[in-house]
Amino acid sequence: MKAIVVGAGIAGLVTARQLGLAGWDVELLEKSHGPRPDGYMMDFFGPGVDASQRIGLYPRLAAAAYRPDSLEYVDTRGLRTCSLDYGQFSRLAGGNVLSLLRPDMERAALAALADVPAGRVRIRYGARLAGAWNDDDGGVRAAVVGPTGKVLTGNVLVGADGIHSEVRARIFGPERDYLRPLGMRAAAFIAEDPKLASRFRNRFVLTDSIGRMAGIYSLRTGEVAAFLVYRDAGGTGSGPGSPDARDRLCEEFAGLGGTVDRLLELCPEYPYDDVVAQTIMPVWHRGATVLVGDAGGAVSLLAGQGGSLAIAGGALLGDLLGPASSPDGVSAALGVFEERWRPQVEAAQEAGRRAARTFLPANRAQRLARRWVIRAAHLPGVDRLVARQIVGRTVK
To answer: Which residue range or ranges hold the FAD-binding domain (predicted)?
Structure first.
């Protein structure tokens, strides 16, 4: 059996690994010319923890994790307004949280392909999808532009190519039918500044600001990672790659204090900057094509579970498809995947929509309310409220 997986991000790599371990031949297509260096820090908890432990990926993730002491909000002078102990945050999230940079998660999943027999999974970087079709005989075809570009055939086509999925556009319809912007954009970049890295070691620091938020944390490399979220005033919902992204960020985040000013000086010419959105679809599979991860069920960074769901969803899809040996077997596996996985994704999407209402305070009253919630997080009852706002779950 042969699979064509489009997108060598977290979900695509995990799906490809599980299929390869099950004996499938996998063509893994990625339009980037190598592993992507951009991305923000994610708190890894929930279903992805269980899935990564089950498939043997967890040790690689744990080795790459950061262990911050606290999450702090600061004013424009850099003075702390409220904070949350990270041990307490871990408890609110279920007691098992890893803080991981998104590129590190991808590298861990990529390294785990070494568990698959040689030649079973072939990664084609720089390969762009130019066409995709479900065939009448139950198979699929994909036209590829790039290195050794040609028309590939397979038994299943997996779209793991993110919220701007080309597979989704080719098989299910245009992006506008499924992408639901949440009224914000997020930017992220990594820069070198030893002084900032030393100052912010072992803590995540966020600006306690209205309508926008900048975050900073230091990396073990001596670099700093910046995370910027702001309202999408134009409401365009446009994707990444805007040539004026740096200028827009400098304009949006002016006046938030010296630390943010320094981050803006360090901002590269073309930072990651994309719409904060969810992917809402009535069905994730059609014929022998299926979507996994953000391509079919993006929850947005506000839900805090994107990486976790990418690993858990990819592992489930790969394991269900693994035993299939015919078009009927593939069809049955895709149906079971959607039946079992959709409730998890929809619950996380609801958590993301709740978080969107308060993530960026619109006024001083909302900002004060956030401070109160965080300061009172240790109180019985309030801890459940914090859990719902931060991680989309209720502590037991």
So the answer is: 2-347
